Task: inverse folding
């Protein structure tokens, strides 16, 4: 094999190595972008779940407050009725 053929082969081999490296870098960048997108979607889903849980807790708290307020109102009404009944008995 003469010198120019050997040089051509070396250059071709080098070019193939550069091409493979470029392809590997491109694939790594694509995978990194895909992972980044998956992480972003996972974060969004987590935020939605947290917001949903907060809303559920707030609804439960509001229902508990409403129930307590209704019970207190019923208790006040019952006490007023008892007082009115006691007054009537005295009269």
Result:
């Amino acid at each position: 094999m003469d010198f120019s053929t050997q040089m051509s082969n070396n250059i071709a081999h080098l070019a193939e190595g550069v091409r493979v490296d470029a392809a590997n870098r491109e694939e790594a960048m694509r995978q990194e972008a895909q992972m980044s997108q998956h992480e972003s979607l996972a974060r969004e889903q987590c935020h939605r779940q947290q917001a949903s849980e907060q809303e559920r807790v707030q609804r439960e708290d509001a229902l508990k407050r409403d129930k307590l307020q209704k019970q207190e109102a019923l208790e006040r009404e019952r006490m007023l009725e008892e007082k009115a009944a006691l007054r009537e008995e005295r009269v």
Summary: The CA atoms of residues 26 and 42 lie 24 Å apart. The radius of gyration is 39 Å. The mean pLDDT is 95. The longest helix spans residues 3-90.
